[in-house]
Amino acid sequence: MSHLSEAFIREIEAIVGPAGIERDPERMRSYLSDWRNAYRGLAALVIRPATTEEVAGVVRLCNEQQVALVPQGGNTGLCGGSIPDGSGCQVVLSLTRMTKFRQVDPANETITVEAGVILQSLQEAAAEAGRFFPLSLGAEGSCTVGGNLATNAGGTAVLRYGNMRDLTLGVEVVLPDGQIWNGLRGLRKDNTGYDLKHLFIGSEGTLGIITAAVLKLYPAVRSVTTAWVALPSASAAVELIGSIRALCGDRLTGFELMSRQSVDFVLRHVHGCRDPFGDAHPWYVLIELSDTQPEAPLNQLLEIGIGEALEKGWVIDAVVASSESQVAALWAMREGISEAQNHEGPSLKHDISVPVSCIPDFIETTDQRLRDRFPGVRIVTYGHVGDGNLHYNISKPVGADDARFKAQHEAIMQVIYDSTVSFSGSISAEHGIGQAKRDAARHYKDPLELELMRAIKTTLDPKGLMNPGKVL
């Protein structure tokens, strides 16, 4: 039951209007659990402002009344960062009504959008302007720009274009006291002090609420070549990406690594997916080259690169897509892994990064440690080799009890994170900390880093009302 007074709720409604407030328990339900139903919470109210001024008014009132706020976008996160706690005292602030495209500036290669804009809509708007916005990930049909910024989203094109931090020139933020910081500057050079936008990007709503952003656009892509390549080992993937990079430069847009276990799950559970090869192989990569020139000789470049790798023993077999439908089919193999794994029962998902050069040793070492300690576990390894980001997921042994497997989560996580840190890696590469990794971050991050983070949090949000219990 809500602890909020009727007077407070009337004041909120006066700010956002009847369409901006939700109290019905049934209609609130979708805001109180994540898309996987892995995290659930309660809320006193769901507030859906439509403008930055409305957000500021809500935040100001909540600050005065000491009501905690949980910002939320498309609610597609994997670490519970946008879900309230179980107290029923927090308020969910959904930005999904803030969907305006404020400006497209082709000459400056920028687009200014509000936080509730769906990523796919942003991609389409860029295309309509004859430009390209490169952030791409599995949830692009429902995730929002605000959520992408809050978690510093990565995706499949980081290798060439960087993550959301690299794609952002300016942000507009409502601070915890309700002030509006207008940092919407479309400048690529600005050395007038601290670059404050980087405090808020990746902060998961704990320092303020990003309401709009100036984002970079790129020339439209007019040529694409995609190949599915079988490899004998993960070390071959590291050798191959270095060779392809040297040959193709920044035409190399994607380089996705997948273990055979990953592919087996997809072939078993995702309708329409077929193995491009007759035989099973230990590892696979999906390689994508792109160019702004129509009919660029990408196939020729890729065939040269793969041919040289075949001679060196880095590649066992390869197929280059010859149509858009074949490209879609190859990407479906990659994008279907997470869904396919869910059909195999509970899975423990980890999003880590290590230096690219360490990927083979990390996989070999960590696989062995897990199999020694937890016999029969199935290790689903895939990810973005070019930026060292692996999705290192563990499925239960065949026939194992679900509850018993889930009970091993902390022990399995410790093995993986201990190994990650031993290779100078990060326990969260692109999914954030949220509530899922908060305690682990306390254990694995440098104490001085945590002290500095807490000092920033205390300075900006002294009452601790912005997404409490997340990150720190």
From TrEMBL:
Cofactor(s) it depends on: FAD
Any one GO MF annotation of this record: FAD binding
Pfam families xrefs: FAD-oxidase_C (PF02913), FAD_binding_4 (PF01565)
Top-level taxonomic group: Bacteria
Domain FAD-binding PCMH-type: 39-220
Example of a GO biological process term: respiratory electron transport chain
Keyword line: FAD, Flavoprotein
Gene3D superfamilies on file: 3.30.465.10, 3.30.70.2190, 3.30.70.2740, Uridine Diphospho-n-acetylenolpyruvylglucosamine Reductase, domain 2 (3.30.43.10), Vanillyl-alcohol Oxidase, Chain A, domain 4 (1.10.45.10)
Family stated for the protein in its record: Belongs to the FAD-binding oxidoreductase/transferase type 4 family.
Protein name: FAD-binding oxidoreductase
Species whose genome carries this gene: Stutzerimonas zhaodongensis
